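Data availability (excerpt). The following record was deposited with the supplementary files.
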Amino acid sequence: MSSLGKIYVSSEGILYSIEDIRLMSGWSETTVQKLFNDPKFPAIDYGKRKLVENHALMQYFSIRREKARDTYWR
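Predicted structure:
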């Protein structure tokens, strides 16, 4: 077992909005908007809203990403 203890991952699918991610991360609305517009980010369009499913979000952030190496963020 890791030093972090057991990790529980819910099987429930939850959709997060731009505002949800902004509140959870503390990032600016501009930064989160840009994240949702990144072609590599697993956002879905639901009507006029952009959302991301919780498991897709965890998978996306489980991979190290560097602004300096990504042309979208430069």
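Summary of structural features: Residues 15 and 53 are 4 Å apart (CA to CA).
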